[in-house]
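Before relying on records like the one below, remember that each one covers exactly one chain. Contacts with other chains, cofactors or solvent are not represented anywhere in the record.
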Amino acid sequence: MGLECNSNRHRKVYVKDIKQAMKGHVKDGYTFNPERKISKEDQYYNPAPTANDKVHVLVCVVDASAVSQMSPKAIETLQDIREEASDLNIPQMAILTKIDLICPEIKNDVKNVYRSKILKKKMEEFSAAVGYPMNSIFPVKNYHEEINFNNDIDSLILSAVRDLINLGQSEC
């Protein structure tokens, strides 16, 4: 489920549920409900989370083409979630997807990912809006038309996954 911000009240409740999930208090199978936050009486509430129940890394996944259209409420929600994660000492990273759709250079050759001024600008825009440092934002190209695997696409995805694992292990 993505972030959907219908009102300030709903947004705050959603952030509180995310915080509970980061602390390990939300069991698998829970459906986030913007109408009400999880309660201690809920069957999906975990009163005694173990280390395995807690979030080790917060990953924000955003469509690169949607960065410029993010609503102020969505940006504020992402900032609030980041702040909660920081308060819990949870490392964070962002993944910018569908980068080939915003830049013809990358669409022609994914190896141009770090040469693209368009992508760099989009990453800087996201960084400024939400607060992720540039070195914590990983651009990836989605598989959507390809029939076979592509090493260049895989290398971007695997680089992000490697850093995700490293962040998670540094917290153990």
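Strands lie at 58-63, 92-97, 137-139.
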